[in-house]
Write a structure and sequence with these properties.
The protein is of the alpha+beta class. It folds into 2 domains: 108 residues, no CATH class; 120 residues, ATP-grasp fold, B domain (D-amino Acid Aminotransferase, Chain A, domain 1, 2-Layer Sandwich). The chain is built from 11 helices and 9 strands. A hairpin with a 6-residue loop joins strand 2 and strand 3. The mean pLDDT is 92.
């Protein structure tokens, strides 16, 4: 069945049209986009085959980041594995994160190794390695990633068990426009709270999907100015991209590049319209 699904890489526009119809009950306009969602689809179908698969690859992007801004902004890497059976749990520390490099939400967060069901973890990783995420979503830059597993340091902020705060920078023509600060995320799920800020750290609650907006504004991160500068360097030369960072002990830590973000879950209609005017 997986092999059959991989044939879908030859018809990504059909997959996007089916996804659009399922979500909105209407026809997707690709040649002449009418909104940000359709514009992202158009950009994804004309993706840069030399760059997007590398930057979407959670392993290969590390070399790109190291070359552009230095390895001090990378999370610590414990290991890379081609097969789930190769993961040496005994060699890993008591806490760590396992993830596959070729999808979205394929993370296993291990806070206490003694409580981990290793067989279940391997089974899940094997499934994720085979899962044709790019083909099934029409995002072909994921389909051209050679799948592997990576083990990284489990990041902890001063807020302890409250989880990591994500700083998601939305960039247009290489310029960061807004940062969406996301907190209270449920692991491997799209449940979170958010607030948007401009590049002067002025809150823009009207830009956030009202169902997830934070009522208390987060404090400006200590490294915000450094983050802005780094993001501006990493956003070149892309028409539209989201670049994520964390802050650990006052230091920015790179998260990921996302060329096809789920803006409908995060942005208000007004925000989507504003960004669409920038990139149409």
């Amino acid at each position: 069945m997986i092999r059959v699904f991989r044939l879908l890489r030859y018809c990504p526009s059909l997959i996007w049209r089916l996804r659009y119809f399922k979500k909105f009950g209407g026809l997707l306009h690709i040649r002449k986009p009418r909104n940000l969602y359709e514009k992202i689809v158009q950009l994804s179908l004309a993706y840069d085959k030399n760059t997007w698969p590398v930057l979407a690859d959670k392993y290969r992007v590390r070399d790109y980041i190291k070359d552009r801004i230095g390895d001090r902004y990378l999370n610590e890497l414990y290991g890379r594995y081609d097969n789930a059976n190769d993961v040496d749990f005994d060699a890993l520390p008591e806490s760590f994160v396992l993830k596959t490099n070729n999808g979205c939400g394929t993370n296993i967060i291990v806070k206490d190794k003694s409580k981990l069901d290793r067989d279940a973890a391997r089974k899940r990783l094997k499934y994720w390695l085979r899962y044709p995420y790019g083909e099934l979503t029409g995002q072909l830059h994921y389909a051209h990633i050679s799948p592997c597993i990576i083990a990284e340091k489990y990041l902890v902020q001063s807020n302890g068990d409250k989880g990591l705060t994500d700083y998601k920078f939305f960039c247009v023509d290489g310029v960061p426009k807004y940062v969406f600060v996301e907190t209270d995320r449920v692991v491997n799920d799209h449940i979170f709270r958010a607030m948007a800020f401009d590049m002067d750290w002025v809150a823009r609650p009207e830009l956030v999907n009202p169902t997830i907006v934070l009522t208390e504004y987060p404090e400006r991160p200590e490294s915000f100015d450094e983050m802005k500068d780094i993001v501006a360097r990493l956003a070149q030369p892309f028409k539209f991209v989201r670049i994520d960072f964390y802050e650990i002990d006052g230091r920015p830590i790179f998260g990921e590049y996302t060329f096809t973000p789920t803006v409908l879950d995060t942005m208000s209609t007004a925000c989507q319209e504003e960004i669409y005017e920038y990139i149409r």
